[in-house]
Specification:
Blueprint (H helix, E strand, L loop, with lengths): L4 H27 L9 E8 L5 E8 L3 H13 L1 H11 L7 E6 L2 H14 L6
Parallel strand pairs: 2-3
Antiparallel strand pairs: 1-2
Length: 124
């Protein structure tokens, strides 16, 4: 490991966490009055490039496939507004260009828990 490499990793982790937190806050500001069900949207992870120019945002949307497509489309349409919110609230040299990517991890986990609840397993 080169001297100074660990602090950069820690810094990127802090940057990703701060962006994640501000995206959640910005969701309410950007989407206010637009008919979006905020309770169905979860920002799970952010992966910012080391040069801070781009960030992949992993999103989970609960509901039907149509809801997920519509919500992901809304996020992409409002990317500039989210970036503007980040520019105001996160003190970075560059505001990363956001790329939203959907994951079904929460939906799959909910389904597994539902299946486990349906099983008749005697408690020991």
């Amino acid at each position: 490991m080169r001297p100074g490499s660990k602090p950069k990793v820690d810094r990127m982790k802090r940057v990703n966490e701060q962006i994640l937190r501000e995206l959640s806050t910005g969701l309410y500001r950007v989407g206010q009055g637009q008919g979006i069900d905020f309770a169905k949207i979860s920002f799970l992870e952010v992966h910012t490039s080391p040069d801070l120019h781009t960030a992949q945002v992993v999103v989970s949307v609960l509901g039907s496939a149509e809801d997920a497509i519509r919500t992901l489309g809304w996020l992409k349409e409002n990317r500039i507004a989210f970036q503007a919110h980040l520019a105001k609230t996160v003190g970075l040299k560059y505001t990363p260009i956001l790329h939203f990517r959907q994951t079904k991890a929460i939906e799959k986990g909910t389904r597994v828990l539902s299946i486990l609840d349906e099983l008749d397993i005697p408690q020991e």
